[in-house]
Write a structure and sequence with these properties.
Homodimer. The protein has 2 domains: 86 residues, ATPase, nucleotide binding domain (Nucleotidyltransferase, domain 5); 136 residues, Nucleotidyltransferase, domain 5 (2-Layer Sandwich). Helix content is 37%, strand content 23%.
Amino acid sequence: MILVIDIGNTNTILGVYDGEELVARWRMTTTSKRTADETGQFIHSLFHYSEVSADNIKDVIISSVVPDIMYSITQGIRKYFNIEPMIVNPHMEIGINLGMDNPMEMGADRIVNLVAVNELYGGPAIVIDYSTATTFDVLDKDGNFITGITAPGLQVCAEALYERAAQLPNIAIKKPKSVISKNTVDAIQSGLVFGHIGETIYIVNKIREELAMPDLKVVATGGLARVIESEEKIFDVLDPYLTLKGLRVLYEKNASAKS
């Protein structure tokens, strides 16, 4: 079994794979305030609440977009699992061509998602990840990265309104019943959710138009993807575990090199 860890700006998602089967999954808040001991003990303790034993973990792969947390999590894994974790980077075997001037500029999570789509669904495709940022990445049929777009995520937009507008409340992200609003909370939710839906449709259509790829499939993931999908059928595939699957694929591509 392998432990896969996706460290995002807001949340860290952990999963355990037995072959190709995801047998356990957890979500925790991403924070750099935990020590290596606290991090290692916390991750180890998660196994007490599942049917998987920590003793069965034979290897670990980590994807991170938060450099500040890497020391505590890698040291914690080394100490409490006695494993040297594999760290996702653009120089490992990824099976796609990034074709960038500086591949290190691309977030590890985006690389992992592209790898997953290339392996599981094939190109040409647009990969949309609704996380702290909303990202659009395009892969052609030959596994070449074509372009990437980054926009503020839904939660970031909501927090910005709350922090910058004195009379606006902090709200939960959910789709209102109608775009027509009669109160402040519904008005904010309407603007955020329907605005994000419109943004998604426009960007997808512009990418298809400018690349002359009308048949680009759309693969979506991320915690807020279901909010977008609840209104219109935009996605060809909605895969909430896309990043975890990509980590498994990357591990398999690079396990022999590690040993």
